[in-house]
């Protein structure tokens, strides 16, 4: 993805904040023009997300 604040990034951020944790479902939110492979996006979405991370994501998404 070229921008995390683009359409795909915003969709993924909103889903994460709504409680979605499944990397496959999150990757499926990407716009069809995203050049990265789905598997690559899924790998990027795997990790530990703390309450502080969610707090910061809310601030950056506003």
Total number of beta strands: 0
User: Shape, please?
Assistant: globular
What is the rounded distance between the termini? 20 Å
SS field, number of helical segments: 4
Provide the domain count. 1
Helix proportion? 40-55%
Sheet having the most strands: none
Overall description:
With 62 residues, this protein is mainly α. It has one domain. Helix content is 55%, strand content 0%. It has four helices and no strands. The chain has helices spanning 7-17, 23-27, 38-44, 51-61. Helix 1 packs across helix 4 (51-61). The longest helix is centred in the first third of the chain and has 11 residues, at 7-17. It is globular. It starts with 6 loop residues before the first helix and ends with a helix.
């Amino acid at each position: 993805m070229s921008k995390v604040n683009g359409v795909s990034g915003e969709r993924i951020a909103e889903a994460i904040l709504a409680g979605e944790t499944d990397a496959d479902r999150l990757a499926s939110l990407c716009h069809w023009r995203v050049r990265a492979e789905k598997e690559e996006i899924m790998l990027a979405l795997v990790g530990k997300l703390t309450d502080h991370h969610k707090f910061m994501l809310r601030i950056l998404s506003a």
